[in-house]
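Hi there. Long-time user, first ticket. I'm pasting a complex I've been working with (about 902 residues overall). I'd like to know whether the download I got is complete or cut off, because the file seemed smaller than I expected. Thanks.
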Amino acid sequence: MTTDSTPMIDIDPRDMHHLAQAQMNVELDTGDMILNMGPQHPATHGTLRLVVRLDGERVLAADPIIGYMHRGYEKLTEYRTYPQITTLINRIDWLSSFANEVPFIHGAEKLMDIEAPDRAQYIRTILTELSRIATFILFLGEMPLQVGAITPAFYGFRDREHVLNLIESATGGRFHPNFNRIGGLKDDLPWGWTGECRRVLDICAKSCDDFERLIVGNEIFQARTRGVGIITPEAGLAYGVSGSNIRASGVDWDLRRDGPDYLSYKDIDFKVWTHPDGDSFSRYWVRLQETRESIKMVRQLLDKLPSGPVMAKVPRIIKVPEGEIWVETENPLGQMGYYIYSKGSTGPFRTKIRSASFSNVSICPWLLQGIYVPDVVTVLASLYFILGDIDR
Amino acid sequence: MMNLLFASNGIDIGWGTTTAIKTAVVLGTIPAGALILGYVFLLKMMSHMQSRLGPMDPGGFHGWFQLVGDGMKFLQKEDIMPEDADKRVFAMAPIVVLISTFLVYVVIPVGPSLYVRDLNVGVFYALAVSSLSVIGVLMAGWASSSKFALLGALRAAAQLIAYELPLLLAVVGVVMQARTASLQGIVEAQHEGAIFGWDSIGLPFIFTQFIGFGLFMIAAQAELTQPPFDMPVAESELVSGYMVEYTGFRFLFFFMGEFGTAFAFSAIAATLFLGGWTLPGLDMDAEYMKIVGPIVLFTKIMLIAFLMFWARFTYPRFREDQLQKLAWKYLIPLSVINILVTAAFIVWI
Amino acid sequence: MAFKLPGVIKGLTVPFRTMTQPTVTVQYPHEKEELAPRTRGVIALKEENCTACMLCSRSCPDWCIYIEGHKEKAPPRREGGKERLVNILDRFDIDYGLCMYCGICVEVCPFDALFWSPEFEYSEFKIAKLLHDKDVLGEWMETVPEVEPLEAGAVAPKGAK
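Hi, the file is complete. Here it is re-exported in full:
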């Protein structure tokens, strides 16, 4: 199944030649220095290894080496049933873990031709947007940490706690909800959850205002991030950069609005934020606005929440009929997709996971050429990748 | 000075004992000041600004013992040196930084005649001697026998030298207004001065020299390599700072040097701009000022240090080239303009 | 006065305001936080309900539940009936060093023998000691909270727990 939701921008094949240029010869050159930002490093978000060749203060070439966290998800799914896989795929992007389950379960439901009831779709959307808020608030706090400000990171973690406690009261797990089931959700929401949710949304809105005042308006932060790490729309699309990163380069593309319908996004109004610049500052700014937009979306969803069951009629032993399906969704990190190939048993025969950060990081050789060494950290922080998402 | 303290009670101590006591007091002030600043601002104020509590258990009452315990931990660590390091230079580098801190305390007055020496070039002596730490930084970078440490040290030295100028030029306005460069004289000038004829609070120079105050605070922040100017130190994330090969008690000396210098710079700023150890309305020469003076100065130091650390925890850091641009293109011209305006005011008003 | 403060000055107010407000720290050993009733802390076993049907151990993604049982003859339910064979549970161990806290076992159990409890303070110094047998699992039944009511608009599924 193909999707024709990708934007219509012509990509010049000559933009692809730097792929070859960026291949780096890792033998020691006497003139330049090789700097290895190794797998253990305070500046990279996890076990990413970046081998950088320097000429004084400028980067000549950079080569990201991934795979230090490969856990073999696609192989694991070959030997597990659908509920077991739902548990495992929480851990791909662990900061917004509810959003990882959604495309997989959606794909399985489409293969089985089952539609989850409205209330389940609404609650799924609410939890997905809450995960988006949680992970973006953490980003808003820890990108300034990479740039040098130590205080906002604590605000990020503190305000994320409220969202995590909310998810915990509904699903039982702060980080790994494991709440989706084929046909709907595992449980309904506990008493008082919607009131608590509104209260938490107010806290998050205030937190966004704080970040805007503390960081976005700060001239030092702007001096560090404006004009640094510019991703042109053509190069970004050629490398498969998705999500807020490409929207910050001016490409108006959001799978919630432009892709095939999934969850309850067609029932609410929301704005897709873009920024024309494409530098690190615009990536920060776009995520800030998207957090605010998600808060508004959850409020609309809470107002419109229908009553009813949260689970459709499904057989006791779930066997997904034969078929193949490709489902992609707008995850907080970008575009995440699952290609499920089922042969009629209780688990898929083969799953291919398209994770957003893998493509986002692939732009590093092109992006890091010619920038200063301190800016490497800024650019990596603004791309916002999660290692579990890159390596799966 | 101690003669006066004891002579008024009829006891005569010789010069040697006096100097020994003064040296001991200053040597004790450096770690005490560093500990107090570190605990109040780095541990407690930073924690509350970050919505958390900071150490609570060590020592029982809100974790006051934490830094003392950390110091003792540093002292018992193994003394490692890189194999190719120049051993004597490597060992001397933190001592040089500490010596420069110690020498600054020589001119700071804490009371009517409570100072080690009242030099009549006190201000310039203090700022000149504090720049000796640049030598210590370069020694540390060179002796570490590491390419990255040397680069980090060169960058740090460039930053420190670049910000010496705004630091000094910001103070020239104060000296012009006080007609003396001696710190005790500046305190007197602030106490006796008058704002357009209204003399009930004296004339703390922060009112007229607010540009100088701002420049001094920014330059002091850069001299201490604190955020937003801590690229040489934080670069150790990426390349290596000049302190990378230092562990144990040598690192403790660097740490004490940094916070001791912060204490010293706050004291100088309090003396130059806030009125020093005097309070308006109190008699400068009274006997009780020997007790009240240090307390007043300590309070003012805490205020200035609050501003310094508040900026430290809030701002991201500058890149090296932005830092240099700020110093050379903005701060130095601004400080020269400040001098000209002060001169104009003095001559014509 | 339309004087715009530079952003660096306005930004200073945020940490200052945070400093004047109470902190969010919960000083853990002395104070404890209230956890939600659904929190997946530990799995408790109600032994009398368990029939050793092995559904939970088969559906565990990590295979961390070890069950052994045997069949015994039990007296007939009514007078003059046939003798029955019942499953007696010999061993029910959960290895919490492997457990992912996913909850599939609790969900698939048809006899309501497994429950979630918010209890989390059961750390050990050795990983091997994290294998807990049915007595310990039974003790944790006391910490299982009451079933809480659902949100307005919810429809309880048929045969809900």
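A couple of notes from our side: Chain C touches chain B at residues 8, 11-12, 14-16, 18-19, 21, 23-25, 27 (CB under 8 Å). The longest strand of chain C covers residues 84-95.
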